[in-house]
Amino acid sequence: MNQQLLAKTFVELADNLVADFDLIDFLRLLTDRCVGMLDASAAGVLLADRDGKLRVMAASDERVRLLELFQLQNDEGPCLECFRTGTQVAVPDLTREVDRWPHFVTAAHRSGFGAVHALPMRLRDEVVGALNLFHATPGPFDPVGTLIAQALADVATISLLQQRTTHRSTVLNEQLQTALNSRVLIEQAKGKLAERQNIDMEQAFTTLRGYARAHNRRLSDLARAFIDNSEPLPGLVA
Amino acid sequence: MRSDSRSDRIQVLVAEQAALRGARVGVVDVCTAAVVALPVGGAGVSAMSRTAASHPLCSTDDISEQLEELQLTLGEGPCVDAFTHGSAVLTPDLLTGALQDRWPVFADAALEAGARAVFAFPLQMGAISPGVLDLYADIPTVLDTEQLADALAFADLATLLLLDARIDETGGPVDRALADRGFEDLGGYRAEIDQATGILTVQLGVGIDEAFVRLRAYAYMQGHRLADVAADVVAHRLRFSPDTEPRRTDEET
């Protein structure tokens, strides 16, 4: 574990949380750092909606197949189990779990993953979602890395409660609903930009995020303006 | 999991109200069903827009009707805030001092009309936000977790019904199919539905609301699941165009 990178990451995340941040942008940063620091091949933050279904809030890669792999776990998989039990689920070698999660293991293998780690996002007594880490090669997880991963999952949970809206409801499931809706907004904007520029969903996401940062806008505000055509966005739509 | 069937249960409650009325399911049935299911005295829905005038659509009683009209006339109140901020506004007691500052005119007028607690839920799906569902009670009221989740589910159903009403307006055989078919669950596997909606705004040259309506209408007409049609659109296996019927292509990505 690179200690300097670790320290830098927590400073960066804390800086973002203090500022007027965008939830989706923040969670994407967090998943990127999971990949950078923890040797994960891919990472995702999943939140439970009011019906207890897991939905992707952020992923280190927005390509459809990875999102599907996360979503697939609404039927079976370590993320679902982690969410239901509220405890970490470590799967250092997926090939050993074919009987337990036949569909998930097949899909994970097809996407090039050999190991999975799911960490609960807890708020007081309630489990609100899970942080999901995928590794290309099977092998035991570094215990220090696991501690850090759980700390990052906790930071992700805190960020849910920090997002700015003026008249903030203090009711948890309404807050989660609002968070999930901002994800829907981003997906719609990704679709529109991808189609218009003939790029893939990951490129569409990074383009939107880059534009928001360059123009000092919150990602969801930008996404809405783009979808509504409510203002010219020079440079975004060529 | 018990909560898995929340959307289904809410749909049944709303359908029952429509049956009592002897009509097809509409937004008004969401209002009456919400009043039956939740500790509230009345409910109302207003159509809201960032670009056009907002107007009340329906309400279950006089007080609800007044609340809808008050807010739209005054341009302030929980419904206006819910629409502007895209999050629910829960007001268990209008007599609380801070609220008098937040909505100086509305708070007094609402109390005078006979409301004591007011809850406003935005009807929304990302950038699609066609209106707000308002509930009121004549005594101080707190919605518990389950009741709040139910209220959110009522709002989701109202969103779909409002959008479907636009299909009805444009006519065609679609509306019958929609009514028979009920509502698909949009929960777990929805990223592609949202992406496809965004894609259709470009392919059809329409706004986001219309794009979603067209996507659903196509799925119903073809008898396919919405999620499957969306996946085809995202994978470029299916293209929509403004002038012709959607057509399937073989160019896989």
Explain this structure:
The complex is a heterodimer of chains A (about 240) and B (about 250). By secondary structure, chain A is an alpha+beta fold. Chain A has two domains: about 5-165, Beta-Lactamase (2-Layer Sandwich); about 180-230, Arc Repressor Mutant, subunit A. Chain A is about 55% helix and about 15% strand. Chain A contains nine helices and five strands. Chain A has helices at about 5-20, 25-40, 65-70, 80-85, 100-110, 145-160, 170-195, 200-215, 220-230; strands at about 40-50, 55-60, 90, 115-125, 125-135. Chain A has a five-stranded antiparallel sheet with strand order 2-1-5-4-3, with helices on both faces. In chain A, β4 (about 115-125) and β5 (about 125-135) form a beta hairpin. In chain A, α2 (about 25-40) runs antiparallel to α6 and α7 packs across α8. The longest helix of chain A is centred in the C-terminal third of the chain and has 26 residues, at about 170-195. Chain A is globular and about 55 Å long. Chain B has about 250 residues and is α+β, with helices and mostly antiparallel strands. Chain B folds into two domains: about 1-170, Beta-Lactamase, CATH 3.30.450.40; about 190-250, Orthogonal Bundle (Arc Repressor Mutant, subunit A). Helices cover about 55% and strands about 15% of the residues of chain B. Chain B is built from eleven helices and seven strands. Chain B has helices at about 5-20, 25-35, 60-75, 80-85, 95-100, 105-115, 145-170, 175-180, 190-205, 210-220, 225-235, and strands spanning about 40-45, 55-60, 90, 115-125, 130-135, 240, 245-250. A five-stranded antiparallel sheet of chain B has the order 2-1-5-4-3, sandwiched between helices. A two-stranded antiparallel ribbon of chain B has the order 6-7. In chain B, a hairpin with a 7-residue loop joins β1 and β2 (about 55-60). The radius of gyration of chain B is 19 Å and the shape is elongated. Residues about 170-175 of chain B have low confidence and may be disordered.
